[in-house]
Amino acid sequence: MSAREEVLGRIRRALADVPPDERPEDVPVTRDYLPEHTDPDPEAAAALLAENLADYRAVVHRVTAGQLPGCIARLLAGRGSRRIVVPRGLPEHWLSGVAPGVERLADAPELTHRDLDAVDSVVTGAAVAIAETGTVVLDASADQGSRRITLVPDHHICVVRVPEQVVTSVPRALERLDARRPLTWISGPSATSDIELERVEGVHGPRLLEVVLVTGTEPLGESGEVGAAGRAEEVGAAGGAGEAGERHEGVHDR
Hints:
The chain is an alpha/beta fold. The chain contains five helices and 13 strands. The strands form three sheets. The protein has a seven-stranded mixed beta sheet with strand order 3-2-4-7-12-1-13, sandwiched between helices. It has a four-stranded mixed beta sheet with strand order 8-5-6-9. The protein has a two-stranded antiparallel sheet with strand order 10-11. The chain is globular and about 70 Å long. Mean pLDDT is 85; it is low at 220-231 and 237-254.
């Protein structure tokens, strides 16, 4: 008897008592495992998310809604980004602080891989972020765009709304996600390693991932413009809190 015949034989024996017209959904499956294993408090979840993202070598920034445009502008300027790609549904005021000379490409089918390879940065929103795993999930909604715009450029700025888009665990994330949409699960910058465990970043996606955790609603001035941006708190690639643009070693209380 070959291995194939042995495996198929075991499957037939296991299914011998199953009625031929029975469907998988006809049999209830007990799912009484814990849906989360950490403190569901929103601030605790946001802090855990920031810590785990930093552990994956992402750079995390904590800002208020009013500080968001200024934070994005500083991150792009810090990278020397002159050409960026943005989803068509990205809120316009997020980029209100970006220098006029920065070229913006809208996510569109006619963009080629060569066009995207020439882009310095991409700015998107997110569908949900998972604290326990340090994962950001994109679902190709209007503020996130097509999957390819977050895979080719070397620098990805991803904005996550806190606490609305932060959940504690994968089961909680799945409750919010639509499995029919193209989901991209991101845990830190793209990284791989060879047989000698030499880590290489940027092979399958962005070399640098910056996640901006934004709290509050956008304050509007008399003219309806978003309020002036202030300074922002950063958790560095290895963790660390401080003003935006600074890098710190270790993870500090936020």
